[in-house]
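Q: what sequence does this backbone want?
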């Protein structure tokens, strides 16, 4: 098992478009992943803050969620996420705050992130947010380190059917590793469009330092009062995704499958509650 895990870890770091290095942008939400990972303009509590720190300012409810991701069908590289979001801020009635946690890796390599997020209404339809992510990393050599990354985002609700969003992760390019490597910053810009009730269409352009831009796109349609179906794709590399969401009162469960051309099929599972 350790040999297999080591081989996979090396493989991931040899594939630039999909490598899971320190402070690489992580995607926890099965809803968004089923739509190609296009989440920067979605109002999507509580996991929206992983795609745009400003997204929580658009929500007037409290919410919590947990997520499990098996990105490449290998349990050695699974990820666990938890997040809690609240708008009960005594100092800002238009603001929202959240705390999120992520654990990724195996006994050979492990990362734990803790994110604190704050977002608020700026003016008119414009909202802005900031998050700080503390990384704790451990390796098979029993080496450990901590570092801090800063993320920013904006979200504009132009109408009841159109949102525009943009975010940048690792704005400060935090130093990772003993050799002074810096985590690359990653930028997202996109839109979420609702042509009619129960239909959402998303498109996002992602650009990471020293890599080609990627297009992420997808959509969601409500086919029953309790069931949403989704599909999406990405470029660089070309992936295809699909999934479903099941709604029962204030509880929602989501599942997504993503097919990568070289690494196979990954799966995401999410549960959230709004209260």
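A:
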């Amino acid at each position: 098992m350790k040999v297999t895990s080591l081989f996979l870890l090396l493989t991931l770091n040899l594939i630039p478009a999909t490598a899971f290095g320190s402070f690489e942008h992580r995607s926890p939400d099965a809803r968004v992943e089923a739509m190609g990972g296009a989440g920067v303009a979605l109002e999507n509590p509580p996991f929206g803050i992983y795609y745009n720190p400003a997204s929580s300012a658009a929500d007037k409810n409290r919410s919590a969620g947990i997520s499990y991701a098996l990105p490449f069908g290998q349990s050695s590289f699974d990820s666990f996420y938890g997040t809690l979001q609240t708008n009960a801020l005594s100092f800002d009635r238009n603001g929202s705050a959240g705390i999120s946690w992520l654990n990724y890796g195996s006994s050979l390599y492990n990362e734990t992130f803790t994110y604190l997020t704050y977002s608020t209404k700026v003016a008119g339809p414009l909202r802005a947010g900031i998050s700080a992510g503390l990384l704790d990393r451990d390796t098979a050599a029993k080496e450990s380190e901590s570092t801090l990354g800063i993320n920013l985002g904006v979200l504009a609700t132009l109408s009841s059917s159109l949102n525009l969003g943009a975010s940048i992760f690792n704005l400060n390019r935090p130093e990772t590793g003993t050799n002074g490597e810096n985590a690359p910053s990653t930028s997202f810009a996109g839109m979420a469009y609702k042509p009619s009730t129960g239909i959402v269409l998303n498109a996002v352009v992602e650009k990471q330092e020293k890599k080609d831009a990627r297009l992420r796109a997808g959509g969601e349609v409500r086919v029953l009062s309790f069931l949403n179906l989704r599909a999406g794709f990405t470029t660089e590399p070309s992936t295809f995704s699909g999934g479903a969401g099941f709604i029962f009162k204030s509880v929602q469960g989501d599942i997504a499958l993503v097919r990568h051309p070289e690494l196979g099929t990954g799966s995401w599972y999410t549960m959230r509650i709004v209260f």
